[in-house]
Amino acid sequence: MKEITPEELRKWPKDSYELIDIRDDGLVAYGIIPGVLHIPMEVIEEGPNTELENISKNKKLVFYCQIGRKSKELEESEYLEDRDIYSLEGGYIGYIRSGMLDESAREEKQHKAEESIRKKFHKQLFTPFAKACKTYQLIQEGDRIAVCISGGKDSMLMAKLFQEIQRHRQCNFELTFLVMDPGYNRENRELIESNAKALGIPITIFESDIFDAVDTIEKSPCYICARMRRGYLYSKAKALGCNKIALGHHYDDVIETILMGMLYGAQIQTMMPKLHSTNFEGMELIRPLYLIRESDICAWRDYNDLHFLQCACHFTDICTTCHEDGTTSSKRLETKKMIAELKKNNPFIESNIFKSVENVNLDTVIAYKKNGTRHNFLDEY
Q1: How confident is the model over 14-28, as pLDDT tens digits?
Q2: Which CATH superfamily is domain 103-335 in?
């Protein structure tokens, strides 16, 4: 299969080719090149596809995956033999990196992103951010908060919202924008650095060997990776004089975690808005995006034409997301789709799931744990 660079592709007349995204739904949810056709790899591999058949034979077909490896395999598809097909060099990440901005364009993009938080998306983003901070008492006078940035849409937006709320000066606190490089490849690290610069986020980067450490672990590598990453973040934040770390989990993460706990963990639990660290004395974890919907984060991202990094797992480079609960991305995506399906018949399904852990009636619970001790309803029956 022929390869074409993003720079070369941009020189082609737009009506001379069709750009096709072959990544799975999980990756596409984190960002897609505007105007492309999305047909997952497994659909294409099944054989002749109606969407592809409807594309004019005069058009070149340019396929892309995440980093440019999978798309090369399409040359083995027999039913594409009579088509002029290409693989986009570097994939989605390569395309985004090739569009890195010059200084003047960066200033314009930063201004637009900040202005959209203050105006267009104020109700959807800043208001619930401020509400969560007030309701759960996440920010207090004199705090030094390490805003932990993974490079994804959630943590990047969280950094901008922290900058905005600090601008209001209702409470005196300090911010450190902390990025841990657990072993990213060069392209992914440069994408994080480029986005941070374009958005005006002064990041502090430190390195760890976490990806190498979990490379040989077969059982629950994502869970172990997530726990190790949190430990490194706590340690570095404390060394920098911070008393809190902020993570970018949002409302949808919360309700998915509640449902997954029941379906896959046989337990009722939630992702708390803040936690005391058990291993780092005096440190807390806070989640200020707790009340923000993922769809609104995506809308802000797309409105500002921003493209972010997902997990970039060391041994797959395509992991959609790593969560501390140890669930795989496929289970989370499955749960997300289940909630969306349930919402078709009940528009309140999401808020009901969220509120269910605020309205626990212990008189109707057979057993529960408190401070590690198990209690049974028979104890007081």
Answers
A1: 999 999 999 988 778
A2: HUPs (3.40.50.620)
pTM of the predicted protein model: 0.82
194: CB partners within 8 A, 6+ apart: 97, 100, 101
> Average pLDDT of 134-154?
96
Q: What is the rounded distance in angstroms from the CA atom of residue 196 to the CA atom of residue 91? A: 21
For the stretch 78-131, pLDDT in tens is: 777 788 899 999 898 888 877 666 667 788 889 999 999 999 999 999 999 999
CATH fold for the domain made of 2-98: Oxidized Rhodanese; domain 1 (3.40.250)
* Same-fold call for 2-98 versus 103-335: no
Domain parsing of the chain, residue ranges: 2-98, 103-335
Please give the torsion angle defined by the CA atoms of residues 188, 193, 199 and 202, in that order, rounded to the nearest 10 degrees: 140
Rounded to an integer, what distance in angstroms lies between the CA atom of residue 328 and that of residue 321? Answer: 8
86 contacts 1 by C-beta, under 8 angstroms: yes
